[in-house]
Specification:
Dipeptide-binding Protein, domain 3; alpha+beta; 4-stranded antiparallel β-sheet; 25% strand; 7-stranded mixed β-sheet; D-Maltodextrin-Binding Protein, domain 2
Length: 511
Protein backbone atom coordinates (compact mmCIF):
# COMPACT_ATOMS: atom_id res chain seq x y z
CA UNK A 1 0.00 0.00 0.00
CA UNK A 2 1.31 3.37 -0.99
CA UNK A 3 1.93 5.93 1.75
CA UNK A 4 1.67 9.18 -0.21
CA UNK A 5 -0.74 10.69 -2.71
CA UNK A 6 -0.49 10.00 -6.43
CA UNK A 7 2.19 11.96 -8.28
CA UNK A 8 3.58 11.92 -11.79
CA UNK A 9 6.70 10.21 -10.51
CA UNK A 10 4.69 7.55 -8.73
CA UNK A 11 2.64 6.60 -11.76
CA UNK A 12 5.27 7.49 -14.38
CA UNK A 13 2.48 8.81 -16.54
CA UNK A 14 -0.47 11.12 -16.38
CA UNK A 15 -3.97 10.91 -17.79
CA UNK A 16 -5.30 13.95 -19.62
CA UNK A 17 -9.08 13.88 -19.94
CA UNK A 18 -10.93 15.58 -22.74
CA UNK A 19 -14.62 15.69 -21.85
CA UNK A 20 -15.71 16.74 -25.32
CA UNK A 21 -13.93 13.85 -26.96
CA UNK A 22 -14.93 11.31 -24.33
CA UNK A 23 -11.47 9.72 -24.36
CA UNK A 24 -8.37 9.64 -22.21
CA UNK A 25 -4.85 10.27 -23.49
CA UNK A 26 -2.06 8.39 -21.77
CA UNK A 27 1.33 10.12 -21.72
CA UNK A 28 3.97 7.40 -21.94
CA UNK A 29 7.55 8.31 -22.81
CA UNK A 30 6.43 11.63 -24.27
CA UNK A 31 3.91 10.03 -26.67
CA UNK A 32 0.13 10.23 -26.48
CA UNK A 33 -1.80 6.96 -26.68
CA UNK A 34 -5.60 6.87 -26.84
CA UNK A 35 -7.19 4.48 -24.29
CA UNK A 36 -10.72 3.74 -23.12
CA UNK A 37 -12.14 6.23 -20.68
CA UNK A 38 -12.90 3.45 -18.23
CA UNK A 39 -16.49 3.99 -17.15
CA UNK A 40 -17.97 0.95 -15.41
CA UNK A 41 -21.76 0.97 -15.13
CA UNK A 42 -23.36 -1.19 -12.44
CA UNK A 43 -27.08 -1.93 -12.26
CA UNK A 44 -28.42 -2.09 -8.72
CA UNK A 45 -31.45 -1.48 -6.53
CA UNK A 46 -32.28 2.12 -5.55
CA UNK A 47 -30.87 3.24 -2.22
CA UNK A 48 -32.49 4.87 0.80
CA UNK A 49 -29.69 5.45 3.31
CA UNK A 50 -26.55 7.48 2.61
CA UNK A 51 -25.23 7.73 6.17
CA UNK A 52 -22.66 4.89 6.40
CA UNK A 53 -23.83 4.14 9.93
CA UNK A 54 -27.31 3.26 8.63
CA UNK A 55 -26.67 1.47 5.35
CA UNK A 56 -27.91 -2.09 4.95
CA UNK A 57 -28.61 -3.13 1.34
CA UNK A 58 -25.92 -4.25 -1.10
CA UNK A 59 -26.48 -1.12 -3.16
CA UNK A 60 -26.02 1.18 -0.16
CA UNK A 61 -22.90 -0.68 0.99
CA UNK A 62 -21.40 -0.68 -2.52
CA UNK A 63 -21.80 3.07 -2.91
CA UNK A 64 -20.42 3.78 0.57
CA UNK A 65 -17.50 1.43 -0.10
CA UNK A 66 -16.62 3.46 -3.19
CA UNK A 67 -16.85 6.84 -1.44
CA UNK A 68 -15.34 6.02 1.97
CA UNK A 69 -12.70 3.64 3.32
CA UNK A 70 -12.61 1.01 6.04
CA UNK A 71 -9.89 0.96 8.66
CA UNK A 72 -9.27 -2.67 7.73
CA UNK A 73 -10.98 -4.65 5.00
CA UNK A 74 -11.86 -8.28 4.25
CA UNK A 75 -10.74 -9.89 1.00
CA UNK A 76 -12.61 -12.44 -1.10
CA UNK A 77 -11.11 -15.27 1.00
CA UNK A 78 -12.40 -13.79 4.29
CA UNK A 79 -8.96 -12.58 5.40
CA UNK A 80 -8.37 -9.25 7.11
CA UNK A 81 -6.37 -6.91 4.88
CA UNK A 82 -5.04 -3.32 5.24
CA UNK A 83 -7.00 -0.35 4.01
CA UNK A 84 -6.60 2.94 5.88
CA UNK A 85 -4.45 1.09 8.41
CA UNK A 86 -1.20 -0.29 7.00
CA UNK A 87 -0.35 -2.34 10.11
CA UNK A 88 -1.58 -3.18 13.60
CA UNK A 89 -0.48 -4.90 16.79
CA UNK A 90 -2.47 -6.71 19.47
CA UNK A 91 -1.57 -6.87 23.16
CA UNK A 92 -0.86 -10.34 24.64
CA UNK A 93 -4.13 -10.34 26.58
CA UNK A 94 -6.14 -9.43 23.46
CA UNK A 95 -7.58 -6.20 24.85
CA UNK A 96 -5.54 -3.52 23.02
CA UNK A 97 -5.35 -3.03 19.26
CA UNK A 98 -3.02 -0.34 17.91
CA UNK A 99 -3.27 0.74 14.25
CA UNK A 100 -0.82 2.70 12.11
CA UNK A 101 -2.52 4.72 9.37
CA UNK A 102 -1.18 5.16 5.86
CA UNK A 103 0.36 8.51 4.96
CA UNK A 104 -1.18 11.01 2.56
CA UNK A 105 -4.85 10.22 3.17
CA UNK A 106 -7.24 13.08 2.37
CA UNK A 107 -10.97 13.53 2.42
CA UNK A 108 -12.53 14.63 -0.84
CA UNK A 109 -12.77 18.20 0.47
CA UNK A 110 -8.97 18.29 0.75
CA UNK A 111 -8.76 17.87 4.53
CA UNK A 112 -6.11 15.43 5.73
CA UNK A 113 -7.37 12.41 7.64
CA UNK A 114 -5.99 12.16 11.18
CA UNK A 115 -6.35 9.47 13.88
CA UNK A 116 -8.99 11.60 15.57
CA UNK A 117 -11.30 10.99 12.61
CA UNK A 118 -11.02 7.25 13.21
CA UNK A 119 -11.69 7.66 16.93
CA UNK A 120 -14.67 9.95 16.29
CA UNK A 121 -16.17 7.51 13.76
CA UNK A 122 -16.10 4.54 16.11
CA UNK A 123 -17.15 6.58 19.13
CA UNK A 124 -20.22 7.55 17.12
CA UNK A 125 -20.88 3.96 16.08
CA UNK A 126 -20.66 2.67 19.66
CA UNK A 127 -22.43 5.54 21.46
CA UNK A 128 -24.82 4.23 24.10
CA UNK A 129 -28.43 5.08 23.32
CA UNK A 130 -27.67 6.11 19.74
CA UNK A 131 -29.93 3.45 18.30
CA UNK A 132 -27.33 2.70 15.64
CA UNK A 133 -27.09 -0.96 14.59
CA UNK A 134 -23.43 -1.07 15.65
CA UNK A 135 -24.07 0.00 19.25
CA UNK A 136 -24.06 -3.58 20.56
CA UNK A 137 -21.33 -4.69 18.13
CA UNK A 138 -18.85 -2.25 19.69
CA UNK A 139 -20.17 -2.34 23.25
CA UNK A 140 -16.94 -4.01 24.45
CA UNK A 141 -14.79 -1.01 23.47
CA UNK A 142 -13.77 0.78 26.67
CA UNK A 143 -12.15 3.75 24.92
CA UNK A 144 -10.32 4.81 21.77
CA UNK A 145 -7.14 6.87 22.11
CA UNK A 146 -5.04 8.83 19.64
CA UNK A 147 -1.58 7.53 20.52
CA UNK A 148 0.52 9.11 17.77
CA UNK A 149 0.36 11.33 14.67
CA UNK A 150 -0.67 8.31 12.60
CA UNK A 151 -1.66 5.96 15.42
CA UNK A 152 -4.94 5.06 17.10
CA UNK A 153 -5.47 2.49 19.87
CA UNK A 154 -8.67 0.63 20.75
CA UNK A 155 -8.90 -0.59 24.35
CA UNK A 156 -11.45 -3.36 25.04
CA UNK A 157 -13.22 -4.33 28.23
CA UNK A 158 -12.63 -8.02 27.45
CA UNK A 159 -10.96 -10.05 24.69
CA UNK A 160 -12.78 -10.43 21.40
CA UNK A 161 -11.19 -12.92 18.99
CA UNK A 162 -13.27 -11.48 16.13
CA UNK A 163 -12.55 -7.81 16.85
CA UNK A 164 -10.73 -7.14 13.57
CA UNK A 165 -13.69 -8.54 11.66
CA UNK A 166 -15.95 -6.27 13.70
CA UNK A 167 -13.89 -3.26 12.64
CA UNK A 168 -14.54 -4.30 9.05
CA UNK A 169 -18.31 -4.32 9.56
CA UNK A 170 -20.28 -2.85 6.67
CA UNK A 171 -21.08 0.30 8.67
CA UNK A 172 -17.51 0.93 9.86
CA UNK A 173 -16.52 3.38 7.13
CA UNK A 174 -14.37 6.19 8.46
CA UNK A 175 -15.94 9.65 8.21
CA UNK A 176 -14.67 13.12 9.01
CA UNK A 177 -14.99 14.28 12.59
CA UNK A 178 -18.22 16.12 13.28
CA UNK A 179 -19.94 15.14 10.05
CA UNK A 180 -23.69 15.66 10.31
CA UNK A 181 -24.64 16.12 6.65
CA UNK A 182 -23.81 13.01 4.64
CA UNK A 183 -25.33 14.36 1.43
CA UNK A 184 -21.91 15.84 0.62
CA UNK A 185 -20.41 12.31 0.33
CA UNK A 186 -17.13 13.57 1.80
CA UNK A 187 -15.08 10.41 2.14
CA UNK A 188 -11.46 9.39 1.64
CA UNK A 189 -12.43 6.66 -0.81
CA UNK A 190 -11.34 5.82 -4.34
CA UNK A 191 -14.23 7.62 -6.05
CA UNK A 192 -15.70 11.11 -5.73
CA UNK A 193 -19.43 11.72 -6.24
CA UNK A 194 -20.16 13.99 -9.18
CA UNK A 195 -23.92 13.64 -9.23
CA UNK A 196 -26.56 11.91 -7.15
CA UNK A 197 -30.11 11.58 -8.41
CA UNK A 198 -32.02 9.45 -5.89
CA UNK A 199 -34.54 8.43 -8.49
CA UNK A 200 -32.16 6.80 -10.92
CA UNK A 201 -28.37 7.05 -10.44
CA UNK A 202 -25.18 8.12 -8.72
CA UNK A 203 -22.19 9.07 -10.86
CA UNK A 204 -18.61 9.03 -9.58
CA UNK A 205 -15.14 9.84 -10.89
CA UNK A 206 -11.73 8.59 -9.85
CA UNK A 207 -10.21 10.24 -6.79
CA UNK A 208 -6.98 11.73 -8.13
CA UNK A 209 -5.51 12.00 -4.63
CA UNK A 210 -6.30 8.46 -3.53
CA UNK A 211 -3.56 7.17 -1.27
CA UNK A 212 -3.35 3.57 -2.56
CA UNK A 213 -0.88 2.89 -5.36
CA UNK A 214 -2.39 3.05 -8.85
CA UNK A 215 -5.96 2.75 -7.63
CA UNK A 216 -8.63 3.09 -8.75
CA UNK A 217 -8.04 1.75 -12.24
CA UNK A 218 -11.30 3.12 -13.60
CA UNK A 219 -11.86 6.67 -14.74
CA UNK A 220 -15.55 6.63 -13.78
CA UNK A 221 -17.94 4.45 -11.82
CA UNK A 222 -21.67 4.71 -12.37
CA UNK A 223 -24.37 3.06 -10.26
CA UNK A 224 -27.67 2.99 -12.15
CA UNK A 225 -30.84 2.16 -10.23
CA UNK A 226 -33.23 -0.53 -11.49
CA UNK A 227 -36.47 -1.55 -9.84
CA UNK A 228 -36.07 -5.24 -10.63
CA UNK A 229 -33.38 -7.73 -11.61
CA UNK A 230 -35.00 -8.70 -14.92
CA UNK A 231 -34.77 -5.12 -16.17
CA UNK A 232 -31.16 -4.94 -14.97
CA UNK A 233 -30.22 -8.12 -16.84
CA UNK A 234 -31.97 -6.87 -19.97
CA UNK A 235 -29.86 -3.71 -19.71
CA UNK A 236 -26.72 -5.85 -19.39
CA UNK A 237 -27.68 -7.86 -22.46
CA UNK A 238 -28.38 -4.64 -24.36
CA UNK A 239 -25.08 -3.00 -23.36
CA UNK A 240 -26.65 -0.21 -21.32
CA UNK A 241 -24.84 -1.43 -18.18
CA UNK A 242 -21.67 -3.45 -17.63
CA UNK A 243 -22.65 -5.41 -14.53
CA UNK A 244 -25.77 -6.75 -12.83
CA UNK A 245 -26.01 -8.73 -9.61
CA UNK A 246 -28.35 -10.19 -7.00
CA UNK A 247 -30.59 -11.86 -9.56
CA UNK A 248 -32.59 -15.08 -9.22
CA UNK A 249 -30.48 -18.16 -9.84
CA UNK A 250 -32.42 -19.10 -12.97
CA UNK A 251 -31.65 -15.72 -14.48
CA UNK A 252 -27.95 -16.13 -13.80
CA UNK A 253 -27.92 -19.60 -15.39
CA UNK A 254 -29.56 -18.16 -18.50
CA UNK A 255 -26.58 -15.79 -18.93
CA UNK A 256 -23.90 -18.47 -18.96
CA UNK A 257 -24.20 -18.99 -22.70
CA UNK A 258 -24.55 -15.29 -23.59
CA UNK A 259 -21.68 -14.02 -25.75
CA UNK A 260 -19.76 -11.12 -24.24
CA UNK A 261 -21.06 -11.79 -20.71
CA UNK A 262 -19.25 -13.48 -17.82
CA UNK A 263 -21.59 -15.06 -15.25
CA UNK A 264 -20.10 -15.83 -11.84
CA UNK A 265 -21.22 -17.36 -8.56
CA UNK A 266 -19.32 -17.76 -5.30
CA UNK A 267 -20.31 -19.67 -2.13
CA UNK A 268 -21.37 -17.53 0.79
CA UNK A 269 -22.82 -17.69 4.26
CA UNK A 270 -25.63 -15.41 3.13
CA UNK A 271 -29.10 -16.75 3.76
CA UNK A 272 -32.77 -15.91 3.54
CA UNK A 273 -34.28 -15.89 7.01
CA UNK A 274 -37.92 -16.85 7.46
CA UNK A 275 -38.98 -15.68 10.89
CA UNK A 276 -42.09 -15.34 12.97
CA UNK A 277 -42.05 -12.70 15.69
CA UNK A 278 -42.10 -14.47 19.05
CA UNK A 279 -43.45 -11.49 20.99
CA UNK A 280 -46.86 -11.01 19.35
CA UNK A 281 -49.74 -13.06 18.00
CA UNK A 282 -49.31 -16.69 17.05
CA UNK A 283 -45.55 -16.58 17.51
CA UNK A 284 -45.88 -16.36 21.30
CA UNK A 285 -46.79 -20.08 21.29
CA UNK A 286 -43.73 -22.28 20.59
CA UNK A 287 -46.01 -24.91 19.10
CA UNK A 288 -46.78 -22.60 16.17
CA UNK A 289 -43.08 -22.16 15.44
CA UNK A 290 -42.57 -25.92 15.64
CA UNK A 291 -45.48 -26.44 13.25
CA UNK A 292 -43.94 -24.09 10.70
CA UNK A 293 -40.65 -25.94 10.92
CA UNK A 294 -42.38 -29.31 10.46
CA UNK A 295 -44.30 -27.96 7.44
CA UNK A 296 -41.10 -26.88 5.68
CA UNK A 297 -39.09 -29.02 3.25
CA UNK A 298 -35.72 -27.26 3.12
CA UNK A 299 -34.16 -29.56 0.53
CA UNK A 300 -37.07 -29.08 -1.88
CA UNK A 301 -36.87 -25.31 -1.39
CA UNK A 302 -33.13 -25.37 -2.11
CA UNK A 303 -33.70 -27.26 -5.36
CA UNK A 304 -36.60 -25.10 -6.54
CA UNK A 305 -35.42 -21.64 -5.47
CA UNK A 306 -31.63 -21.91 -5.62
CA UNK A 307 -31.44 -24.56 -8.37
CA UNK A 308 -28.60 -26.26 -6.53
CA UNK A 309 -26.37 -23.21 -6.09
CA UNK A 310 -25.32 -22.73 -2.47
CA UNK A 311 -26.14 -25.14 0.36
CA UNK A 312 -29.17 -26.47 2.24
CA UNK A 313 -29.81 -24.61 5.50
CA UNK A 314 -30.34 -25.93 9.01
CA UNK A 315 -32.13 -23.03 10.76
CA UNK A 316 -28.86 -21.61 12.05
CA UNK A 317 -26.66 -18.85 10.60
CA UNK A 318 -23.56 -20.93 11.36
CA UNK A 319 -23.18 -22.37 7.88
CA UNK A 320 -20.73 -24.63 6.02
CA UNK A 321 -18.62 -21.62 5.03
CA UNK A 322 -17.34 -21.80 8.64
CA UNK A 323 -15.95 -25.37 8.63
CA UNK A 324 -14.45 -25.02 12.12
CA UNK A 325 -17.85 -24.26 13.65
CA UNK A 326 -20.50 -25.80 11.40
CA UNK A 327 -22.10 -28.81 13.10
CA UNK A 328 -24.63 -31.35 11.79
CA UNK A 329 -24.98 -33.46 14.95
CA UNK A 330 -28.48 -32.12 15.71
CA UNK A 331 -30.89 -33.55 13.10
CA UNK A 332 -33.54 -31.52 11.33
CA UNK A 333 -36.89 -33.28 11.85
CA UNK A 334 -38.35 -34.60 8.56
CA UNK A 335 -41.25 -32.71 7.05
CA UNK A 336 -44.57 -33.80 8.56
CA UNK A 337 -47.57 -31.62 7.59
CA UNK A 338 -49.98 -33.80 9.60
CA UNK A 339 -47.96 -33.36 12.79
CA UNK A 340 -47.75 -29.65 12.06
CA UNK A 341 -51.53 -29.40 11.70
CA UNK A 342 -51.99 -31.20 15.03
CA UNK A 343 -49.63 -28.77 16.76
CA UNK A 344 -51.60 -25.82 15.38
CA UNK A 345 -54.84 -27.32 16.69
CA UNK A 346 -53.27 -27.78 20.14
CA UNK A 347 -52.13 -24.16 20.03
CA UNK A 348 -55.70 -22.98 19.48
CA UNK A 349 -55.90 -22.96 15.68
CA UNK A 350 -58.02 -26.04 14.82
CA UNK A 351 -59.19 -24.42 11.58
CA UNK A 352 -55.72 -23.32 10.55
CA UNK A 353 -53.76 -20.11 10.79
CA UNK A 354 -53.81 -17.13 8.41
CA UNK A 355 -50.88 -14.72 8.23
CA UNK A 356 -49.44 -12.06 5.92
CA UNK A 357 -45.95 -12.96 4.70
CA UNK A 358 -43.83 -9.95 3.74
CA UNK A 359 -40.82 -10.29 1.47
CA UNK A 360 -38.54 -7.95 -0.49
CA UNK A 361 -38.59 -8.24 -4.25
CA UNK A 362 -34.92 -9.14 -4.70
CA UNK A 363 -33.08 -12.39 -5.32
CA UNK A 364 -35.08 -15.58 -4.95
CA UNK A 365 -37.13 -14.28 -2.02
CA UNK A 366 -40.45 -13.90 -3.88
CA UNK A 367 -40.00 -17.46 -5.19
CA UNK A 368 -39.24 -18.65 -1.65
CA UNK A 369 -42.44 -17.02 -0.40
CA UNK A 370 -44.51 -18.82 -3.04
CA UNK A 371 -42.97 -22.21 -2.24
CA UNK A 372 -43.54 -21.68 1.48
CA UNK A 373 -47.17 -20.78 0.78
CA UNK A 374 -47.61 -24.08 -1.07
CA UNK A 375 -45.82 -26.21 1.52
CA UNK A 376 -47.44 -24.62 4.54
CA UNK A 377 -50.95 -24.88 3.06
CA UNK A 378 -50.81 -28.65 3.60
CA UNK A 379 -50.41 -27.99 7.34
CA UNK A 380 -53.25 -25.47 7.51
CA UNK A 381 -51.06 -22.36 7.42
CA UNK A 382 -52.54 -19.93 4.90
CA UNK A 383 -50.19 -17.09 4.01
CA UNK A 384 -50.93 -14.02 1.96
CA UNK A 385 -47.68 -13.14 0.19
CA UNK A 386 -46.93 -9.41 0.06
CA UNK A 387 -43.94 -8.52 -2.13
CA UNK A 388 -42.43 -5.08 -1.49
CA UNK A 389 -39.59 -3.18 -3.19
CA UNK A 390 -36.43 -3.79 -1.22
CA UNK A 391 -36.10 -0.08 -0.51
CA UNK A 392 -39.55 -0.12 1.10
CA UNK A 393 -39.15 -3.41 2.96
CA UNK A 394 -35.98 -2.20 4.68
CA UNK A 395 -36.32 1.55 4.40
CA UNK A 396 -39.70 1.72 6.11
CA UNK A 397 -38.68 -0.87 8.72
CA UNK A 398 -41.26 -3.46 7.65
CA UNK A 399 -38.63 -6.14 8.06
CA UNK A 400 -38.46 -5.39 11.79
CA UNK A 401 -42.16 -4.73 12.35
CA UNK A 402 -43.84 -7.44 10.24
CA UNK A 403 -45.20 -10.40 12.17
CA UNK A 404 -43.99 -12.85 9.51
CA UNK A 405 -41.26 -11.97 7.04
CA UNK A 406 -38.40 -13.08 4.85
CA UNK A 407 -35.16 -11.16 5.26
CA UNK A 408 -31.98 -11.55 3.25
CA UNK A 409 -28.91 -11.61 5.48
CA UNK A 410 -25.65 -11.03 3.68
CA UNK A 411 -22.58 -13.15 4.18
CA UNK A 412 -20.16 -12.15 6.91
CA UNK A 413 -16.63 -13.52 7.36
CA UNK A 414 -17.27 -14.66 10.94
CA UNK A 415 -20.31 -16.25 12.63
CA UNK A 416 -20.38 -14.11 15.77
CA UNK A 417 -21.81 -11.21 13.77
CA UNK A 418 -25.16 -12.98 13.55
CA UNK A 419 -25.25 -13.73 17.26
CA UNK A 420 -24.70 -10.14 18.37
CA UNK A 421 -26.70 -8.50 15.57
CA UNK A 422 -29.81 -10.65 15.15
CA UNK A 423 -30.22 -13.32 17.83
CA UNK A 424 -29.20 -12.22 21.33
CA UNK A 425 -31.89 -10.58 23.47
CA UNK A 426 -30.53 -7.04 23.01
CA UNK A 427 -29.40 -7.39 19.38
CA UNK A 428 -30.22 -4.29 17.34
CA UNK A 429 -31.69 -6.34 14.48
CA UNK A 430 -33.44 -9.05 16.49
CA UNK A 431 -36.34 -9.17 14.07
CA UNK A 432 -37.80 -12.39 15.52
CA UNK A 433 -37.55 -11.00 19.09
CA UNK A 434 -35.87 -14.26 20.08
CA UNK A 435 -34.66 -14.07 23.67
CA UNK A 436 -33.13 -17.08 25.39
CA UNK A 437 -30.84 -16.82 28.40
CA UNK A 438 -29.02 -20.05 27.64
CA UNK A 439 -28.43 -18.92 24.08
CA UNK A 440 -27.11 -15.53 25.20
CA UNK A 441 -24.69 -17.16 27.63
CA UNK A 442 -23.31 -19.39 24.88
CA UNK A 443 -23.04 -16.45 22.48
CA UNK A 444 -21.03 -14.56 25.11
CA UNK A 445 -18.62 -17.48 25.48
CA UNK A 446 -18.21 -17.89 21.71
CA UNK A 447 -17.51 -14.19 21.30
CA UNK A 448 -14.96 -13.75 24.08
CA UNK A 449 -13.08 -16.95 24.81
CA UNK A 450 -9.54 -17.36 23.53
CA UNK A 451 -9.92 -21.15 23.85
CA UNK A 452 -10.83 -22.41 20.39
CA UNK A 453 -12.19 -25.75 21.65
CA UNK A 454 -14.53 -23.93 24.01
CA UNK A 455 -15.74 -21.74 21.14
CA UNK A 456 -16.38 -24.79 18.91
CA UNK A 457 -18.45 -26.41 21.65
CA UNK A 458 -20.43 -23.20 22.23
CA UNK A 459 -21.32 -22.86 18.54
CA UNK A 460 -22.44 -26.50 18.40
CA UNK A 461 -24.84 -25.93 21.29
CA UNK A 462 -26.04 -22.67 19.72
CA UNK A 463 -26.98 -24.57 16.58
CA UNK A 464 -28.87 -27.17 18.62
CA UNK A 465 -30.93 -24.48 20.40
CA UNK A 466 -31.86 -22.72 17.16
CA UNK A 467 -32.90 -25.97 15.47
CA UNK A 468 -35.01 -27.08 18.41
CA UNK A 469 -36.64 -23.86 19.60
CA UNK A 470 -35.50 -20.86 17.60
CA UNK A 471 -38.35 -18.94 15.84
CA UNK A 472 -36.35 -18.89 12.60
CA UNK A 473 -36.12 -21.05 9.51
CA UNK A 474 -33.05 -20.87 7.28
CA UNK A 475 -33.86 -23.07 4.27
CA UNK A 476 -30.63 -22.42 2.37
CA UNK A 477 -27.40 -20.50 2.07
CA UNK A 478 -27.40 -18.73 -1.27
CA UNK A 479 -24.53 -18.18 -3.64
CA UNK A 480 -23.44 -14.65 -4.49
CA UNK A 481 -24.18 -14.17 -8.18
CA UNK A 482 -23.38 -11.54 -10.76
CA UNK A 483 -22.74 -11.10 -14.45
CA UNK A 484 -20.57 -8.54 -16.19
CA UNK A 485 -19.31 -7.55 -19.60
CA UNK A 486 -16.16 -9.34 -20.73
CA UNK A 487 -14.73 -5.93 -21.68
CA UNK A 488 -13.71 -5.52 -18.03
CA UNK A 489 -11.26 -7.37 -15.85
CA UNK A 490 -10.47 -7.31 -12.15
CA UNK A 491 -14.08 -7.99 -11.14
CA UNK A 492 -13.82 -10.20 -8.06
CA UNK A 493 -17.27 -10.77 -6.60
CA UNK A 494 -17.35 -11.04 -2.82
CA UNK A 495 -19.61 -13.16 -0.67
CA UNK A 496 -21.38 -9.96 0.40
CA UNK A 497 -21.80 -8.40 -3.08
CA UNK A 498 -21.83 -4.83 -1.80
CA UNK A 499 -18.29 -5.27 -0.53
CA UNK A 500 -17.00 -6.07 -4.02
CA UNK A 501 -13.91 -3.93 -4.57
CA UNK A 502 -14.42 -1.76 -7.64
CA UNK A 503 -11.03 -0.13 -7.13
CA UNK A 504 -9.32 -2.93 -9.05
CA UNK A 505 -11.74 -3.14 -12.01
CA UNK A 506 -10.10 -2.18 -15.29
CA UNK A 507 -10.92 -1.97 -18.99
CA UNK A 508 -9.73 -5.20 -20.61
CA UNK A 509 -10.88 -4.34 -24.14
CA UNK A 510 -12.85 -1.62 -25.90
CA UNK A 511 -15.31 -4.12 -27.34
Amino acid sequence: MKTTGHTTADRRYRVVRYALLGVALLVVGGSFVCVAAGAFRVAMQPIVQIDPALISSDAEVAIANAVYDYLVDVDADNRITPRLAVSWTVSPDGTEYTFILAEGIHFHDGTALVPGDVAWTFDRLRAAGSGLPTESLYANIDRIDVTGPREVTFRLTEPNPFFLFGLADNHALVVKRGTADFSTFNGTGPFVVDEYRPEDRILLRANERYFATDLPKLDRLEFLFFADSVAAVDALRGGQVDMAWRMPTALLLSLRSEPGIIAVDVPTNGFDLVRLRSDIGAGTDPRVVEAMKLATDRTAIFRVVQLGLGAVGRDSPVGPLYPDYYDESTPIPPRDPAAARALLAAAGYPDGLALDLYTPDTGGRPDLAVVLKEQWAEAGIDVNVIVEPESVYYGENHWMDAELGITGWGSRPYPQFYMSSMLTCDAAWNESRFCDDAFDALAAVAGTTLDEAERVAAYAEIQRILIERGPVIIPYFFASVAAHSDRFGGVELKAFPGRTDFRAVFVASEG
